[in-house]
Amino acid sequence: MKKNVVFFEVQGGSDKGPDGYRRDTLPMVNALKERGWDAEVIFFELEKKDEIYNHVKENACSYVSRINPGNLKSESDYFAMLRQLCEDGIIGMPHPDAMIGYGAKDALAKLTDLSLVPTDTYAYYTMETFKETFPKSLVLNERVLKQNRGSTGEGIWRVQLIDELPEGTVEVPLTAKIKCTEAKDNHVETWELGTFIDFCEQYIVGENGMLIDMAFLPRIKEGEIRLFMLHNKPINVVHKKPADSEDAFSATLFSGAQYRYDSPEEWKDLVESFLAQLPDITSRLGNYDLPLIWTADFILDYDKNGNDTYILGEMNCSCVGFTSQLELANNVADEIIEIVEAKVGAQLI
Fold first, then answer.
1. How much is the pTM?
2. Confidence class of residue 348 from pLDDT cuts 50, 70 and 90?
3. % the chain with pLDDT above 90
4. pLDDT per residue as tens digits for the range 71-96
5. Residue ranges of domains in the chain, CATH in brackets
6. What's phi and psi for 114, nearest 5 deg?
7. What is the pLDDT of residue 299?
8. Angle at CA 151, nearest 5°, toward 174 and 260?
9. For the chain, what percent of residues have pLDDT higher than 70?
């Protein structure tokens, strides 16, 4: 059995240290080497795609992707190479289609039959559907629109009606005034609904464009709860409390949110409920193996009996970092070895 793991990176980007690598990549490489395995970092370049593909196919047993797709010249070419490597028997961490399935915002719309996601959660892939449905969903309650691209809250908008609608209204008029707060920095803008809908076209057009439409959950003010997962194991919980101001709802550091790190045992109900539903999540997102390093973000809500419940707001698996806890590199190395040995063993049976 080959014992060489390739870590894919890409040149440039704000996630790199002074040496040009992600700060959490070399600790994983070194941890594998300490365990008697080989590991190397390859910087993906579109012009060298075939050369890289052949090298990994011939020399590696597995790859770990540490690339933010937004830093790539061509995301589709990178994913196509990873897909071919997986078909050739290289163990993908994650498989590119798992990366898409768990990382894309429309994963939420695929999970509405689970208790994790409200049933009035919609995915828009065309402007026609957005224009038809969003004015009707906005009648129900305040909404949050989330673009599929971007990061740190960019293109995530809380949308509120400014004036009350007449009783019995089933669709918000396009001339209605709305208050829009962007999660990037909690700044507020006032729009007419129709103009705002046109503005949002930028989020829907283009490769992997889409918008997710969810009900706004007021208990976000109590904090967003991020479950940090290593494959199928919860490692820690990050409690992210938005800044204490009237319009703040963003849980990003950039917007002034305060972070606290807890053990999974301190969030026992959330962890147990989420782990119990992992098989259902996996089946609805393509039946791919769980990503190696990934996160799931939750917001508190009340169920119909007034008890606490947790609503899934987002998952991420493309390049989740752990630079503030580099000692986790040892856990990651152990998990990689366990996954590879289990996969190889299953193939030999």
1. 0.89
2. very low
3. 75
4. 788 888 999 999 999 999 999 999 99
5. 4-94+325-348 (3.40.50.280), 118-216 (3.90.70), 219-316 (3.30.470.20)
6. -100, 160
7. 94
8. 115
9. 94
Report which residue type is found at 44. Answer: F
Residue 222 is encoded by which pair of tokens? 């109590």
pLDDT at res. 247 = 62
Distance CA 123, CA 133 (A): 10
- Whole-angstrom distance, CA of residue 299 vs CA of residue 320: 19
What's the pLDDT at 243?
A: 67
Comparing CA positions, the residue from 320, 318, 316 lying closest to residue 105 is 316
- The secondary structure of the chain, three-state, reads CCCEEEEEECCCCCCECCCCCECCHHHHHHHHHHCCCEEEEEECCHHHHHHHHHHHHHHCCEEEECCCHHHCCCHHHHHHHHHHHHHCCCEEECCHHHHHHHHCHHHHHHHCCCCCCCCCCEEECCHHHHHHHHHHHHHHCCEEEEECCCCCCCCEEEEEECCCCCCCCCCCCCCCEEEEEECCCCCEEEEEHHHHHHHCHHHHCCCCCCEEEEECCHHHHHCEEEEEEECCEEEEEEEEECCCCCCCCCCCHHHCCEEEEECHHHHHHHHHHHHHHHHHHHHHCCCCCCCCEEEEEEEEEECCCCCEEEEEEEEECCCCCCHHHCCHHHHHHHHHHHHHHHHHHHHHC
pLDDT confidence of residue 324: 85
Say how far apart CA 222 and CA 275 lie, in whole Å: 23
